[in-house]
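Final paragraph of the annual report: two paired records, presented back to back.
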Amino acid sequence: LVRVDTIESLVDRGRSTEALAELRGMRSSGEVANAEVREAIAGLRTNPAPGIGGLIDALRVYTEDFGARTGIVASFNIDGPALDGTTAPPELPDGGELHLLRVAQEALTNIRKHARAQRVSVTIASQGTDWHVRIADDGCGFDPAGASIPEQSGRRHFGLMMMRERIEAMGGKLSISSRPGEGTVIAASVPGVDNGVPDELEVPTALSEVPSRPTSVERRR
């Protein structure tokens, strides 16, 4: 409404060029607001069912919706012996489905707002009794050290702090790997309940790679 008042004033004074610039600014603001609302609605509508299957389904649906909304090439992958149908998966900690989903949603929000990425991948994997969720993009990257400096902390860094608090509340760890111009990898790891899965299993190598090209949705069960 303030910008509308400004435009009316400019028109009354015959300053059409400046009024047009304000109108263009309003259009840009409207597009941003529209994206925010659609994202909020998508987030509220995506609630995982209990168990790892519910989390997998919710992550897949949200990743696909994110790609459709933003035009960013988005892939969803699952990996690990506990997800290929050969081993009973460990249980998630209490509230783990919702916390891990919200972490992925916040990471994708930051990618949309800041990363200028063309591709993003969301991967869920099992290792022993631990669960890993990894979100990687090929965007502009940033300096993670700035997240701890109040004067440099914007919305992105506030979101990173919230993600870290969610994961640490479940006894897990959140790692952020990024450099300017080299994309970003956010990896969340949380302990599950031991169902007899061997401890010597290795972390899938896919968890340490930034995607260089689109990959199809992989579901190995």
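The closing record of the year follows.
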Amino acid sequence: MNKKQLFGIIGSVILFFGVFAPIVSVPVLGNLNYFQNGKGDGLIILILSVLSLILVLAKKYKGLWFTGGLIIAVMAFTFVNLQIKISDMKMQMENDLAGNPFHGFASMLIQSVQIQWGWALLIVGAVLLIVSAAMKDEKD
């Protein structure tokens, strides 16, 4: 097994498990992972990670440009969407709870929504796929 194949396998495996790692922490609800976000994004990443692993094992590294790029695009879309939703939630809470005695408590809850370490796993996995695709071929 050469480095190119090793990077591709590790990237695929990291992505597969990264889908189940926490990506956001929400008070009361707890940690949410990519697979739980209520949309098909987690399933798309899972399918693309398995497809990437198949491409690596078949030594079809050029296909990793497609799967890796698509994974990065899906993650970027989800991340931006998440940031927009958090911002909208904060603005709506400010408007709805103006003058309410529980405004401070609600504000504290909204402020404690946090991005979690699952994003790092997903990014590392996607980067490893792109690196694998970009590496020059070695003789086995």
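Strands lie at 22-26, 30-33, 114-115. This concludes the annual technical report; the extension proposal builds directly on these records.
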